[in-house]
Design goal:
The model has no long low-confidence stretch (mean pLDDT 92). The protein has 7 helices and 7 strands. The chain is of the alpha/beta class and 249 residues long. The longest helix is centred in the middle third of the chain and has 20 residues. It is globular, with a radius of gyration of 17 Å.
Length: 249
């Protein structure tokens, strides 16, 4: 395992299902500490650490979804010899999906399931909430989404540290254009908050059009970061789905 790209926040139980988690825009691997703890003993959670944040803050963040997904596919490919699944939240859902496309194109084994959280299905045109111009617009968008990370925006020193990653991530989302292709032969589960200000439930449900496999939609009370309030329920869903799919590390 490449320790530059992946973080474990607990022991890796032998023969436990493996779940690779992709953070949201501006987020870091530590966003999945609560989920990792909730799944302790039931899953081997690998959280992706993107360049440009926390202990990788001196590295340049990716400025395109395609470039980022290319790099992620290279890093994850050695992990695909054993069954695995992906969980991505918000921008992480796009990266999980695009990384899967690249893995399949290269002949690598597919993930047993994609869990796509807090993100609508992709389309050829960037979503209106992704097309932001300038730091003020990015900061306003992050405030609108809420989440525990909002306190960082009120600290000038911390804000200076996170702005480069936020700027790059939102720039990547704003320039992302889905290239039409056949639905993936990978089961998918979409998760969304019922009051998410940027992801209507119908857009989350539209992920069904991108798979030829089983599809499930789970709607939770809450906004964009509904995960923060439903860790136990989501961990139970993931554990049951991983066990049913037979994904084992």
């Amino acid at each position: 395992m490449n320790s530059t790209w992946f973080r474990r926040f607990g022991p890796a139980p032998e023969s436990a299902p493996r779940l690779v988690c992709f953070p949201h825009a501006g987020g870091a691997a530590s966003a999945f500490v609560p989920l990792s703890r909730a799944l302790a003993g039931r899953a081997d959670v690998l959280a992706v650490q993107y360049p440009g944040r926390q202990d990788r803050r001196l590295e340049s963040p990716f400025e395109s979804i395609t470039g980022h997904a290319d790099a992620l596919a290279r890093e994850i490919r050695p992990l695909t010899a054993a069954p695995y699944a992906f969980f991505g939240h918000s921008m992480g859902a796009v990266l999980a999906y695009e990384t899967t496309r690249r893995l399949l194109a290269s002949g690598s084994p597919a993930p047993g399931r994609l869990f796509l959280s807090g993100r609508g299905a992709p389309s050829p045109r960037p979503g209106v909430h992704d097309r932001l111009h300038g730091d003020d617009a990015v900061i306003a968008a992050v405030r609108r989404l809420g989440g525990t990370g909002n306190a960082v925006l009120d600290d000038p020193e911390l804000l200076d540290m996170v702005l480069p990653a936020l700027r790059a991530d939102y720039g990547a989302l704003g320039s992302y254009s889905w290239q039409e292709s056949a639905p993936l032969p990978v089961p998918m589960t979409a998760l969304v908050g019922d009051t998410d200000p940027v992801v209507p439930v119908a857009r989350a449900a539209a992920w069904e059009e991108h798979t030829t496999g089983d599809f499930g939609l789970r709607v939770f009370p809450g906004g964009h970061f509904f995960l923060d309030d439903h860790t136990a329920a989501i961990s139970a869903l993931l554990s049951a789905s991983l066990s049913a799919s037979g994904a084992r590390a």
